[in-house]
């Protein structure tokens, strides 16, 4: 089995397990809120539910870390392709100058030209395939409020780390186009933020 398919299969199982745990937490909080008129505090969860909360938190962290690893892999591939394309462009320019100086036809289909076209097509295909990857599942607006705040905090840290790492390497912050590989993190952040606002407004 290919590594990418193995990763997707593992991630799918993690998401399913995470949803199962989230359902248990939601049922527990609904019953507690019906009885006491409020959500339970951490000290009121009991040993069994506290273990479920902790397991749910670890599972969510594992899913997010896996997504971050995929983003870093995409970025590394993008940087490699960018440098390769730059190197091939330089070779093409040198070849064109040399051919023109000898009086030959610059469009005769040189070896470098064929290599450049092949590499460009391959790079474009990889770029398209990279952006066709599935996004994270939609936010469950019934998830525990504390969990939503925790996820919002973690995503914000990932976004900040991306900017910091990019600036360290390029001596500047990335622009909008250069943040395209982590667009799904921004979308996820806005979904979580909206869910929190809706929950707090409904109190």
Classify the helix fraction into a percent range. over 70%
Number of domains: 1
Count of DSSP strands: 0
By DSSP (H or I, 4+ residues per run), the number of helices equals 5
Strand content: under 5%
| Arithmetic mean of pLDDT | 74
- Given helix and strand content, the structural type is mainly alpha
- Low-confidence parts, pLDDT < 50 over ≥5 residues? 101-134
Describe this structure in words.
Helices cover 77% and strands 0% of the residues. By secondary structure, the chain is mainly α. It has one domain. Helix 2 runs antiparallel to helix 3 (111-131), helix 2 (46-101) runs parallel beside helix 4 and helix 4 runs antiparallel to helix 5. The two termini are 48 Å apart.
Structural features:
single chain, mainly alpha, 77% helix
Short description:
This protein has 203 residues and is mainly alpha-helical.
Write the layout of secondary structure elements.
Layout lengths: L2 H34 L9 H56 L9 H21 L13 H26 L12 H19 L2
Helix pairs in contact: 1-2, 2-3, 2-4, 4-5
């Amino acid at each position: 089995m290919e590594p990418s398919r193995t990763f997707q299969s593992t991630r799918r199982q993690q998401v399913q397990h995470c949803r199962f745990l989230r359902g248990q937490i939601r049922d527990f909080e609904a019953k507690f809120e019906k009885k006491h008129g409020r959500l339970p505090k951490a000290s009121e969860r009991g040993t069994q539910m506290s273990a479920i909360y902790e397991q749910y938190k670890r599972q969510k962290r594992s899913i997010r870390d896996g997504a971050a690893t995929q983003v870093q892999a995409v970025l590394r591939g993008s940087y490699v392709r960018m440098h390769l394309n730059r190197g091939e462009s330089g070779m093409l320019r040198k070849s064109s100058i040399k051919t023109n100086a000898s009086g030959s036809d610059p469009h005769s289909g040189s070896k470098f030209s064929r290599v450049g076209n092949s590499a460009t097509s391959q790079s474009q295909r990889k770029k398209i395939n990279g952006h066709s990857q599935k996004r994270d599942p939609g936010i469950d607006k019934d998830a525990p409020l504390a969990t939503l705040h925790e996820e919002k905090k973690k995503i914000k840290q990932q976004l900040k780390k991306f900017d910091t790492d990019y600036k360290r390497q390029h001596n500047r912050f990335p622009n909008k186009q250069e943040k395209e590989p982590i667009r799904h993190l921004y979308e996820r952040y806005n979904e979580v933020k909206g869910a929190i606002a809706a929950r707090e407004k409904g109190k």
